[in-house]
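ingest -> validate -> predict -> emit
validate: passed (alphabet ok, no gaps, 368 aa)
predict: started
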Amino acid sequence: MASPGSSFWSFGSEDGSGDPENPGTARAWCQVAQKFTGGIGNKLCALLYGDAEKPAESGGSEPPQATSQKAACACNQKPCSCPKADVNYAFLHATDLLPACDGERPTLAFLQDVMDILLQYVVKSFDRSTKVIDFHYPNELLQEYNWELADQPQNLEEILMHCQTTLKYAIKTGHPRYFNQLSTGLDMVGLAADWLTSTANTNMFTYEIAPVFVLLEYVTLKKMREIIGWPGGSGDGIFSPGGAISNMYAMLIARFKMFPEVKEKGMAAVPRLIAFTSEHSHFSLKKGAAALGIGTDSVILIKCDERGKMIPSDLERRIIEAKQKGFVPFLVSATAGTTVYGAFDPLLAVADICKKYKIWMHVDVSIP
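emit:
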């Protein structure tokens, strides 16, 4: 009579052989086991890979593990060139990777497998025969997978499966048939640079911490100022995490330029400030006004023509009205590429008005 274990394996094998040494079979059942909660999936994976807990008489002092994975590398090469197949991820966790002792071999194998998954996704993203997205409704994904955040760490086998699953349902922004605002596809050099910066894992607080990155920031911003037209790249600049906070930075600088005392004394020390922007501009202008204490009512929306461009005459009219009420116009935010129309405000005409009334001009640019 077959044991329960052999019956289980016979049921689980793809070829009906029930071979418990078949890694493909173990992996398939391990994927099924991950739907169990409370850490049960991890324990089942350990059993499936043939390394059950030791009997009580053995002392049970050490958790189940693949001892061959803990052995020192014998290839005597740096970096290690041992085959990836020798690393059994079902028994390995993040704590087994570098800087752990003897963590070089599993680290190289694990990261190489992650890289393989990513590269396969990159190639597939440009395949016109594939879908842009394997779309599922939220309730479908929640039912199909176990989303519980377990108290115990998952093994590397599970992490690799999660990587594959994540990309399976991700939208392929590099796909030839993917069209969306603010997305320019997948740039290979940019992707490599992203991997580089993530691997370097440093901040840019000081030159001492990130000498190369700080210098790159300096020369890049200088070149951008030259392209804009500032003589010799003079001026200053900053990289920001997004357009919304960039608009708030602009509002912050314009306020400080006109009323530097606001830094120490706050908004109570300045008069009512008024900002102006197109009625088709980004909502982040009002968000920035709210965050800086200026108030959303202090952001005046200027009428646009039939093509979505700000009307300069209406801008000047509203500026005059604000001044007559005793308010202080301090910022005009023009838009170069509105969200809906892709419209460009008449920048030269707006600049002339700002110069006439001594108002800071900001341009919110969104050009892919």
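The first strand starts at residue 273 and ends at 278.
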